[in-house]
Amino acid sequence: MSQSLLFHAFGVRDGYEYWKTEYGEGCARFFLTVKPEQLVCPQCQSQEVSRKGRRFRQLQTVPIGLKPVFLVTEVPKCQCRACGHRFEGPPPLPRPMSTTRTGSKRSSQISIR
Ligand SMILES: [Zn+2]
User: Looking at the predicted structure, is the pLDDT value of residue 104 above 60?
Assistant: First the structure.
C-alpha cells in the first residue's frame, strides 16, 4: 500500500506519515504517525515542543473489498517548552471530535442577504 494511495483512499490529511500495515483476523490496520512539524503549541504557537509519550487512536474506515480497514493514528502527548502548556497532538482525521477544549465558540448562524 503506497502512501499516496492510502492518503487518497482514506482522506488522510497532510501532516501524517504512513508507518506500517498490520494484518489481523480478516482485517487490516494502517498505522500513521504525526510529522514533527505538526506539533505546535495551541497556546502560544511555539514549535519548541517536547514529546511526552503518545497513544493511538483507532477508527474504522472504508473497507478494501470485504475486509474491514482501520486507521490507527498516533496521538503524541506534548509539552510546550516555551509556555509549559501540555497538549495532545493535532486532531487526526476529518471527523467531528466530541471534545473541544478551546474556548472559542463558533456561531452556526450565517446571515444571508
Ligand atoms: Zn506554548
Answer: no
Q: How far is the CA of 45 from the centre of ligand 1 (A)?
A: 6
- Expressed in angstroms and rounded, the spacing between residue 88 Cα and the centre of ligand 1 is 12
Report CA(83)–ligand 1 centroid distance (Å): 4
In the predicted model, what is the mean pLDDT of residues 37-47?
91
Q: How far is CA 6 from the centre of its chain?
A: 14
Instruction: Tell me the CA–centroid distance for residue 79 and ligand 1, in Å.
Output: 8
Predicted local distance difference test score (pLDDT) of residue 1: 54
How close is the Cα of 93 to the center of ligand 1, in Å? 23
Beta strands in 14-99 (DSSP E): 16-23, 28-34, 49-64, 67-80, 86-88
Question: What's the CA-to-centroid distance between 87 and ligand 1, angstroms?
Answer: 9
pLDDT of residue 19: 92
At 21-36, the pLDDT tens digits run: 999 889 999 999 998 8
CA separation for the pair 59, 31 (Å, rounded): 11
Instruction: Give the cell for residue 32.
Output: 500513521
